[in-house]
Amino acid sequence: MRIRKHITLTKDEYQIIYDFAIKNGYSFSEILRKLALDFIKKTEQLDLLDYMNANLSPVSADERRELDALNIDFNDLSGAELSVDDVL
Q1: Spatial separation of the C-alpha atoms in residues 75 and 28, rounded to whole Å
Q2: Residue 53 lies in a domain
Q3: In-domain check, residue 43
Q4: Neighbours of 51 (CB within 10 A)
Q5: Is 46:54 a contact under the CB 8 Å cutoff?
Q6: What is the pLDDT of residues 30-56, one digit of tens each?
Q7: pTM of the predicted protein model
Q8: Residue 71 DSSP code
């Protein structure tokens, strides 16, 4: 079963995607589908730190001072690493 969806793009965005698709032997919809699925797979495979670095902005100076006041030893790596799935 196929589902059709409409998306809104600027002319420039459309042209960039269209040109890329044609250069690589795909239709416009095929390249959008392929790139979206690849992006989802790549994002879901990021470890938590990489995900946070890619999607979150740094803390403000006030937040930094508050964190510093907690005297957390960030060199203590005795905990377990979390994946994005662990958090979500």
Answers
A1: 48
A2: yes
A3: yes
A4: 18
A5: yes
A6: 999 999 999 999 888 888 888 888 888
A7: 0.52
A8: T
Q: Tell me the pLDDT tens digit for each residue of 54-64.
A: 888 888 999 98
Task: Residue 75: count other Cβ atoms within 10 Å of its Cβ.
Answer: 5
List the one residue out of 49, 43, 55 whose CA is nearest residue 74. Answer: 49
Tokens of 31: 């390249």
3-state secondary structure of 47: strand
Angle between helices 28-44 and 11-23 in degrees, nearest 10: 90
- CB burial string 8-44: b at 16+ within 10 A, e below: eeeeeeeeebeeebeeeebeeeebbeeeeeeeeeeee
Per the structure, the count of domains in the chain is 1
CA–CA gap between residue 83 and residue 48 (Å, rounded): 5
Query: Mean pLDDT, the chain, as a whole number?
Result: 90
